[in-house]
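Exam revision sheet. Question 4 asks you to relate a sequence to its structure. Input first:
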Amino acid sequence: MTSYCTLAFLGWPEIVAILVIVMVLFGAKKLPELARGLGSGIKEFKKASKDEPS
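Answer key, structure tokens:
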């Protein structure tokens, strides 16, 4: 059984549609704060995975 990641098949129209839905749900003023939080979360995850001894 082969499993596929559906994110790999997203094109520009799908990404734009997702961004529009996110803007409608959260509002344009809240979007930069959400992006900042996502970026800092990714940064912390990378830092923690780099510091973790294997």
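Marking note for examiners. The two ends are 30 Å apart (CA to CA).
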